[in-house]
Amino acid sequence: MYATLIVLFPWRVIQALPFNDYLAYLEEFGTQAISKREALQLTGLKEFYSFEILWDELVRWLTRLTGSPSVALRLISFFILFVWAFYLLRRVRFGISLLFLFNPMVIDIAMSIIRNGLAWSLVIIGLSVRSKVVRYTLFSIAPFIHSSTLALLLIYGVTQLAARVWKGRRLAEAGIATGVLVGLALTVGSQIVAAYFGDRRFSAEYALGGGSMLQALMWVVLLFLQFTSGNDYIKRNIFVMSLLAWYETMNPFIPWSYRIWGAFLPIIAVSLLDLPTRKRQLAFYCYCGYFALQWFYWSKLVYMYAARTSEQ
């Protein structure tokens, strides 16, 4: 029901800006009949990763099946939203779950930044299943849909190994350091990464700056509360801590870095609600205020407020 509501709701009525990535996808898959693999004659695994061929092939296949790129993209949006809701509603009370599932950035990723949302939702499924065969199959597929998944899986692998070696603050420090190093590699060292992978997107203008300090503040608070929690909590949530450190490192360099936490908010929500009681209450109240501010800036309320202020 949640996924259906989000997909069918007329968001243009209340959102301040359109779903720009979705509109770009419509143009791409509505006008170009030939796939990237055929157009560029891609054959190698490295090229398939760099050009994220599985995403291109999937959308074109769904477009042929349904007759419309719009329907194809919305089917993928439905899948993303279903995965997020299924994961969260099984672990968190209904009302509290909705505060995370209706986060504007979550909606934006599922409805517009669809490729990112799809790849990371496959990782969420992989983290949820018991079968290692299914888990690692999904992990191996995801990077060919969105290349950022490789950094996500690197962090996951390193933190799992670190949890076997260290515990407590030492483990927390190792996890945060991992996230920081990955963030620096993809910003300060982006040209080195591009030279190896041949990724066309790592241009000189890649690290533009302009990340939101207001968005980052909420996750700094959560990361601090996690870092100061007990050994058992840190061991259970070291992956999320490292992920947040990755986001905080990327944020000053890249304006779209919010996609890191936005595409993984169901897992981050479970980690937040796993905090010790007093810390959990503080983090949750901070999030509620943050949630309200996000809706103010994401919806037309900010423009209505600006117009009223200018009139006065």
The quaternary structure here is single chain
> How many β-strand stretches?
0
Overall 3D shape: globular
Continuous helix count = 19
What is the total number of structural domains? Answer: 2
Mean pLDDT: 88
The percent range for strand residues is under 5%
Question: Topology as H/E string?
Answer: HHHHHHHHHHHHHHHHHHH
What is the rounded Rg? 20 Å
Our measurement of the CA-to-CA distance between the termini, rounded to an integer number of angstroms, reads 43 Å
Largest sheet: none
**How much helix is in the residues?**
over 70%
Global structural class: mainly alpha
Unreliable parts? none
Summarize the structure.
The protein has 19 helices and no strands. With 312 residues, the chain is mainly alpha-helical. The model has no long low-confidence stretch (mean pLDDT 88).
Q: How would you portray this structure in words?
A:
The structure is a single chain. Helix 11 packs antiparallel against helix 12 (168-185), helix 12 (168-185) runs parallel beside helix 15 and helix 14 runs antiparallel to helix 18 (277-298). The termini are far apart. By secondary structure, the chain is mainly α. The protein is globular. The chain folds into 2 domains: 1-146, no CATH class; 147-297, no CATH class. The chain is built from 19 helices and no strands.
